[in-house]
Amino acid sequence: MSNVVPVSPDLSFTHEQLQLIKNTVAKGATDDELKLFLYRCKNMDMDPLKPGQIHFVKYGNSPGTIVVGIEGFRTRAARSGKLAGISRGVIRDDKGKCIGAWCEVHRKDWTHPAREEVSLTEYNTGKSAWAKMPETMIKKVAEAAALRMAFPDDLGGIYATEEMDQAASNPVVADQPGPNDGVIDDTYRVPFGKFKNKTLEEIGPDQLRAYVDFLENVAAKKNTVIEGVAAEFITRASEFIAVFENAPIGGDEE
User: Fold this and answer.
1) Would 131 be classed as within a structural domain?
2) Average pLDDT of the chain?
3) Interatomic CA distance for residues 14 and 3, integer angstroms
4) β-pairing verdict for 158-160 and 11-14
5) pLDDT at 170 over 60
6) How far, rounded to the nearest angstrom, does the alpha carbon of residue 203 sit from its chain's CA centroid?
7) Residues spanned by the domain of 210
8) Rounded distance, CA 40 to CA 14, Å?
9) 234 assigned to some structural domain
10) How many domains does the chain have?
11) Confidence tier at 178 by pLDDT (50, 70, 90)
12) Can you tell me the mean pLDDT for 66-70?
């Protein structure tokens, strides 16, 4: 049996490495979720075996999503070659109480920085790290939002775990990252049609393929070009389907 597990043409792990990923970084992932996780690791150019870079997170019975360490988040911006600095701080009321945070991200090719201000009340769950260190948490939210604004091509679709905390009351999370270190890949939801508001994971590759074919056939019959949200859906769905068609997990018998 081969000791190398093919995940994609450019990404493979030994069986021991894959088991380590499943037991730690991607704890609780199904085989399909693990395929998708490793596929996105490759696309994001991040190594799941490097501490603090990228992790898998699962909230209850919901489909798993991806968590990127905050240093990894900053690294993705730095890779553009245009990051010139990050400044952030707390916003306080007239009594000195923290009510939010701000962050400015400077680009070498921009005259003015991307600036985000976020309200503490919108994100504070009052639990866990939010109860212990709300200022640290809200600053991370502001930084993630500002970095995303400044580098949409590199960070679009990546969201801080702190931005998602209120959506999950009982998260099942791998040992890493810590409560103050991480960003999460936001789940795309279909914005129209029979699958409106559902995630790609909830729909599944077979139904997605059928729906993509349906949309393309309708457009062909009407001699129209698919644009906007429909075009985005087809692109995302096709990439998702490709994970299951082209990214097998398992060794070859020799």
Assistant:
1) no
2) 76
3) 5
4) unpaired
5) no
6) 19
7) 193-246
8) 18
9) yes
10) 1
11) very low
12) 71
